[in-house]
């Protein structure tokens, strides 16, 4: 800049020409030539709107929001910067400019970068809590120790399912600059399920396909890898019967072979309803197969095949579909081609190195709770805490900050605590039973089987007690906090062809032998003239306390709750 200035002043060189010759901004050189700026004064640029300490607060906020699963976009960052500058009294309440955004990202490029986040469903985010993960690893440790599988990776298996379609995601292609290129793909069709399984040693079982339909066609498996098998289901998804057939006809033959059946085999899988049944547990115990169910909605961090196998498998599958379309121009991928294409992708993804890495990343083998970083569990805090940002800040600050956060939280809860309601309608019945949870434990263990048997017995006893209570005279309820339907009566008896279980209304205790005060019968004599009526309602007169048939012996069809009612004899 100084040499350009001297060239303009001493050699009468034009500003634009000097700027091009010496590689400096023309306007900046012109300001010095005109005397607006001292030519001997140089600086790298003006000061930023926010200081580095103030921008540091924005960086920390962005980091925490990303860990919670609510990352900050470029537009949101501009608004956050504008709000901070406005609160400091340095600008109007408007977002920051694009120049500030690019400068901010350049200044903090060692800590921040724009990236495409992985989708995380709310049920997965809310269910992946530290307590659930710790309990899972504790139960897994006990199971591996109990069956002496700690150093036997060849007997630790993981099973998972994924859906595939004839449609595929086109890969990037080379095309002329400025053109809008297209890629021909097959249309979306019914889903075909692929069941994969592998052990911690790095060995994979052949793929197992579930096609939609009723009759199996051998052409569906044409070109599939050796050992692969296919079955049919009405939906194309796995169900209880398909899962049982997979274990009996596919899993056991490949895993056991001619080996000793006394050796326990651990199978880890997700807790879908079709994967848990009493008959399945009984069969597994007979074959010395330990069924270990993962905690609900945690497969994205705890299931090996979901963590490190099925992602690459889908990429390989899309690539194979694209190559098939290129080799067979004018054709489309059908379900008769899917087994052949998916088998190639399956073999590429199910390499020993990938499988071992999957079991290592999920902490199964070698067994390691620390393999699941706490950062992956932070999204659950937005569902558990009123102030998740403060909780995450405390976690990052250290143990003392966490203890202080918990202390303040407990103080706030104790101050906001209220006396419990003594209303009988809000008290839970002592007879209520909770079904034992299968997630995060071995469902073939005696403890779980005994808990299920006890639950079924208590459930059966409660049903008998409930039925016995319903066949008795209903009693008054002191208070009813639930919304009441407008079609319920003040005091209602139910008779006729309907049983008492068909009604859920609250009634007073009455005598079944007391007839109607008008027809003097328990069953209305004209009931057969009304074949559409299945339930005979009663109502009690507020004046004479006698009962009368509604709709059949009176013109009144409905008596609303807490409303007055007089029988025809008293209503004169």
Structure characteristics:
572 residues, 5 domains, 7-stranded mixed beta sheet, single chain, Nucleotidyltransferase, domain 5, alpha/beta, 3-stranded antiparallel beta sheet
Describe this structure in words.
It is a single chain. This protein has 572 residues and is α/β, with parallel strands linked by helices. It folds into 5 domains: 2-34; 52-107, no CATH class; 122-169 and 188-371, Ribonuclease H-like superfamily/Ribonuclease H (Nucleotidyltransferase, domain 5, 2-Layer Sandwich); 385-416, no CATH class; 484-572, no CATH class. It has 19 helices and 10 strands. The chain is extended, with a radius of gyration of 36 Å.
The helix-and-strand class reads alpha/beta
Rg, rounded, reads 36 Å
Give the CATH level 1 class of the largest domain: Alpha Beta
- Unreliable runs: 422-431, 469-511
Share in helix = 25-40%
Major sheet characteristics: 7 strands, mixed
The tally of structural domains comes to: 5
What percentage of the residues does DSSP assign to strands (E)? 5-15%
Give the overall average pLDDT. 84
CATH superfamily of the largest domain: Ribonuclease H-like superfamily/Ribonuclease H
Distance between the termini: 111 Å
Q: How many strand units?
A: 10
Biggest sheet strand line-up? 4-3-2-1-5-6-7
Q: Remind me, CATH topology of the largest domain? A: Nucleotidyltransferase, domain 5
Please write the string of helix (H) and strand (E) elements: HHHHHHHHEEEEHEHEHHHHHHHHEHEEE
Taken from the alpha-carbon principal axes, the silhouette is: extended
- Count of separate DSSP helical elements: 19
Going by CATH, the architecture of the largest domain would be 2-Layer Sandwich
């Amino acid at each position: 800049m100084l040499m350009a200035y001297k060239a303009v002043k001493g050699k009468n060189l034009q500003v634009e020409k000097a700027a091009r010759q010496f590689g400096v901004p023309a306007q900046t050189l012109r300001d010095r030539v005109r005397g607006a700026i001292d030519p001997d004064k140089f600086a790298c640029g003006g000061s930023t709107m926010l200081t580095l300490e103030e921008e540091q607060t924005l960086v920390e906020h962005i980091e925490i929001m990303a860990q919670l699963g609510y990352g900050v976009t470029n537009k949101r960052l501009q608004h956050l910067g504008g709000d901070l500058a406005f609160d400091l009294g340095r600008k109007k309440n408007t977002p920051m400019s694009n120049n500030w955004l690019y400068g901010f990202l350049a200044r903090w490029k060692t800590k921040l970068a724009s990236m495409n986040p992985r989708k995380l469903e709310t049920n997965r985010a809310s269910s992946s809590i530290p307590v659930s993960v710790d309990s899972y690893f504790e139960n897994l440790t006990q199971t591996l120790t109990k069956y002496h599988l700690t150093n036997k990776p060849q007997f630790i298996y993981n099973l998972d399912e994924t859906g595939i379609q004839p449609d595929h995601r086109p890969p990037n292609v080379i095309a002329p600059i400025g053109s809008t290129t297209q890629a021909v793909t097959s249309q979306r069709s019914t889903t075909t399920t692929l069941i994969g399984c592998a052990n911690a040693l790095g060995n994979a079982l052949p793929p197992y396909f579930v096609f939609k339909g009723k009759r199996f066609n051998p052409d569906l498996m044409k070109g599939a890898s050796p050992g692969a098998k296919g079955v049919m289901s009405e939906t194309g998804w796995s169900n209880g019967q398909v899962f049982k057939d997979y274990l009996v006809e596919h899993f056991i033959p490949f895993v056991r072979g001619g080996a000793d059946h006394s050796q326990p085999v651990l199978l880890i899988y997700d807790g879908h309803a079709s994967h848990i049944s009493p008959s399945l547990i009984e069969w597994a115990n007979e074959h010395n197969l330990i069924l270990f169910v993962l905690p609900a909605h945690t497969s994205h961090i705890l299931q090996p095949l979901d963590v490190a196998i099925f992602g690459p498998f889908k990429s390989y599958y899309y690539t194979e579909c694209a190559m098939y379309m290129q080799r067979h121009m004018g054709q489309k991928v059908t379900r008769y081609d899917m087994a052949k294409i998916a088998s190639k992708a399956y073999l590429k993804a199910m390499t020993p190195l990938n499988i071992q890495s999957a079991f290592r990343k999920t902490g199964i083998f070698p067994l390691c709770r620390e393999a699941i970083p706490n950062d992956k569990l932070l999204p659950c805090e937005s569902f558990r805490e009123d102030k998740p940002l403060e909780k995450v800040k405390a976690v990052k600050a250290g143990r003392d900050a966490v203890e202080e956060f918990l202390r303040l939280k407990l103080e706030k809860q104790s101050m906001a605590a209220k006396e419990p309601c003594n209303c009988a309608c809000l008290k839970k019945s002592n007879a209520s039973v909770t079904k034992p949870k299968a997630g995060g434990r071995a469902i073939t263990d005696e403890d779980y089987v005994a808990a299920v048997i006890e639950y079924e017995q208590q459930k059966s006893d409660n049903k008998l007690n409930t039925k016995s209570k319903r066949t008795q005279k209903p009693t008054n309820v002191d208070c009813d906090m639930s919304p009441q339907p407008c079609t319920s009566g003040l005091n209602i008896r139910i008779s006729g062809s309907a049983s008492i279980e068909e009604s859920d209304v609250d009634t007073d205790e009455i005598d079944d032998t007391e007839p109607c005060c008008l027809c003097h019968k328990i069953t209305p004599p004209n009931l057969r003239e009304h074949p559409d009526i299945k339930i005979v309602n009663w109502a009690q007169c507020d004046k004479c306390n006698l009962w009368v048939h509604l709709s059949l012996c009176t013109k009144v069809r409905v008596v609303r709750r807490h409303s007055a009612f007089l029988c025809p004899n008293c209503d004169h």
